[in-house]
Amino acid sequence: MLQLTKRTEYGLIALVHIAERGAVDAGAFVSARDICDRYPIPRRLVAEVLKALQKNDLVESQRGPTGGYVLARSPESITLGQIVTALEGAPPLTSCESPILLKSGGCEVHSVCPIRSPVHRVREQLWGLLEHTSLRSLLPPATQAHYAPRAAHAR
Predict the structure, then answer these.
(1) Where in the chain are the domains?
(2) Which residues, other chains included, contact 29 with Cβ-Cβ below 8 Å and sequence gap of 6+?
(3) Is the pTM higher than 0.70?
(4) CA atoms of 90 and 2, how far apart (whole Å)
(5) Three-class DSSP category at 70
(6) Which of 1, 62, 85, 102 is deepest in the core (most CB within 10 A)?
(7) Angstrom distance (rounded) from CA 107 to CA 51
């Protein structure tokens, strides 16, 4: 079944940590070191993940002694699909969707395959779920409350 890579897991941990810090101290930058001091994960990989998230406009960075990373948008506007795509691309679910197989001419049962269409639908539904699940939903309840969508002003 689908399994996220360590790279994506570390990215999710980093983003949740950054969002939690932002709930306590709006605009506070979080360094890779801060994240690795809190969680026993490799700093080098966390730094690479944060750079990839920045390249994909999910976090913003600031250099210097008080620098680090901050969310580029609210946690409710960042989806798990965006995070996974930024860190590992959209992984193929079946071997017939594998870039290696596609480059070599495809699958020998492609024209008569009984699972290609149903599995493709499952993949689309899975990605739909990731695209409709926000980073906010991974946050602890107290932090989620900080990021609750503001009610429209009464007229």
Answers:
(1) 6-146
(2) 61, 62, 66, 67, 68, 69, 70
(3) yes
(4) 11
(5) strand
(6) 85
(7) 36
